[in-house]
Fold this protein.
Amino acid sequence: MVTAQDVREAAAGLAGVTVRTPLRYVEPLGAYLKLENLQPVGAFKLRGAYTAIRRMPEQVRRNGVITYSSGNHGQAVAYAAQLVGVRAVVVMPETAPAVKVAGVKRWGGEVVLAGRTSEDRQRAAEQIAARERLAVVPPFDHPDIVAGQATVGLEIAEALPDARTVVVPVGGGGLIAGVVTGLAAGGSRATVWGVEPAGAPKLARSLETGRPVRLERTASIADGLITLTVGAIPFAHLAAQRDRLAGVALVDDDALLDAVQFLWRHAHVAIEPSGAATTAAVRSGAVRPVPPAVLIVSGGNVDPSLLRGRGRGGPGGPGGPGRVRSLGEARFWSPTTTSPWSAPSRGS
Ligand SMILES: Cc1ncc(COP(=O)(O)O)c(C=O)c1O
């Protein structure tokens, strides 16, 4: 398990590499935004990727590193590998947004496109890693990744010691596991909400079952949040700190798109759907955070056409330009209504 000391060591290692991102209060939301879109690669992922690569023994990473990623972790690995001077290969989905493929290449990463699910990519990456003797940097299921992402929670604890609620988007769970660990390391008493797309409720289902559940299929415009399962290591961290977890809210694609456009108009930030999920949860009423509240805005690598509502609901879409429409359903899971931790979790 990642300890407070591990989190502080990760934070020290990230000095000069990642930005200590600001908290910006947004009046219409009644909450602070933790603006991780301001990181060098446009997402919090650099915290975990750099921490993992930095902690690898020299002989392990000498031939280079490889990862499988929907995009942001791939960009982070490419950037971190360039900093330490090793080769990076990134296996991305055939459906990866162009902005993310370009991002990986910008940092000198070599892109391989494979399949559509995270499991397709993981299989391809493991084969290439074995053939070319590359070190695998997993996107979420590794203690060094959790320790790196935990620095988000530590920074919140230090910047806003009286925070009561922190809202976190959930893909494979590295960020939320890190945030609960980092808040604890920083002495914060805030409780944490997870937010998932309605089409990818893997943490919600895993909490109901008491162990990581693998979904058959996931779908959402939030491409960073559609993994089929949460990692065993993140899940174990959440299980160990379950009192801190208020629940998991689900948001649909209309709410995500509304949040992207709301943040563009009202906070003047370009945020991708995965990064806007926490705003979507608050605007839809799926999460009613106790203030002071912090919404983690995890990434800004957005296809610009989404910002003003092109596609769904924008020019050419059913709602016309600049539509801010009512927010579809957002389902809600709360540990007070189910018994999510009945079975022991896997992993450690
Ligand atoms: C912008 C963004 N937010 C959130 C996440 C989810 O992070 P995790 O997989 O650690 O839960 C991702 C993952 O790719 C992401 O890219």
